[in-house]
Amino acid sequence: MGRKQFFENQTSGKVPDNPDKYYTTLIEGKLKLDLLCREYHQLYIKGEWWGFYQLWLDYKGYRWLLEYLCKWYKTETGRELPEWLKKD
To answer: In whole angstroms, what is the distance from residue 5 CA to residue 22 CA?
Structure first.
């Protein structure tokens, strides 16, 4: 039920009247990921960016997240993410 509610929320903006606990968990997780993505983007804009290699080291075992967390990079620079960034 929660997954369905989350999908409806993300595709049509519909907020459930009686949210399932799984829906709430998914919403909270997405908000945290979006915030982290924005923080990385802001660091890049401010010139405080420490680079992809440090993220690659920090996210060992979870590097599949980096493509999402750095989705702003292509828009900002016009370049693709480094291929090695996604590899564990």
So the answer is: 9
Helix axes 21-46, 2-12, angle to 10 degrees: 40
User: Which residues 6+ apart lie within 8 Å of 43 measured at CB?
Assistant: 49, 50
Locate tokens 């039920």: which residue? 1
The pair of structure tokens assigned to 1 is 């039920």
Q: What DSSP character marks residue 64?
A: G
Q: How far is CA 54 from CA 15, 40, 51, 58, in A?
A: 37, 12, 6, 6
The per-residue pLDDT for range 32-74, each reduced to its tens digit, is: 999 999 999 999 999 999 899 999 999 999 999 999 999 999 9
What pLDDT is recorded for position 87?
85
pLDDT confidence tier of residue 88, bands split at 50, 70 and 90: confident
Spell out the domain ranges in the chain.
1-35, 50-88
